[in-house]
Every structure is written in C-alpha cells, then in structure tokens.
Model the fold of this input.
Amino acid sequence: MKKYIPIMSFLVTLTFSNVSLAGPGESCHFHGSKPAAETVILKCADQRKEALVKSGKLDKSWEAIKHSSIDLVDANKGKEWKVQYKNPTLHDKTKLNLYIFFTPPGNFIASNHTGK
Done:
C-alpha cells in the first residue's frame, strides 16, 4: 500500500495541474527554430501589452490600441519580430510608439518606446 501512495499522488497532481491542460502556444513560450505565424506573434504581443497595462508600466489608454505594423527585421543577433503600436492620445511625444520584440519562433525579447 505504501508503494501506491506516491504513484497515486503523482497521477492526481498530473491530472489536475494547469500544465497538463495548457494547449500549445498559450503561454507564448515556444521551442524550435521555425518562425511563428504573424497571427501568433500578434496574439502574444497583445498579451504582453495587456500585462504592461495591468502592471502599471503603460497608461490605461494603451488597452484599446491595436497594432499598426508587424515586421520580421534584421537585428544585431539575427531576425526578430517587431510589433509596433501607436497611441496618438499621449502628451509625451517620446512615448507615442510602443515596440514589442519576439524571437522568430515567438518568444518575448523586450519592449520599449524607441524601436531599437
């Protein structure tokens, strides 16, 4: 009986954990080298933008802003996805644009207002 308790505990944990319920790409963390589709990158960029708003790093006005461009660009370390958002309602002209960068497979790299 004592042998079965650890096995049953493991099976119950595996059955009810979020990891076992997550679908591919839901966390915007990918493996491999195949470039992700633009739609996947846009979904991940929107999730990242929402997280920045919720954490207070971006103004609430960014919530309604849709992407203005998405490009696979050459960067210092190779190709990167660059997603741009424009928010014309801001008074600070240095923060009118938000850029979010991802690896070709779709992993988040950085976000900033300069695009570099």
Q: What stands out?
A: The mean pLDDT is 83. The chain has three helices and four strands.
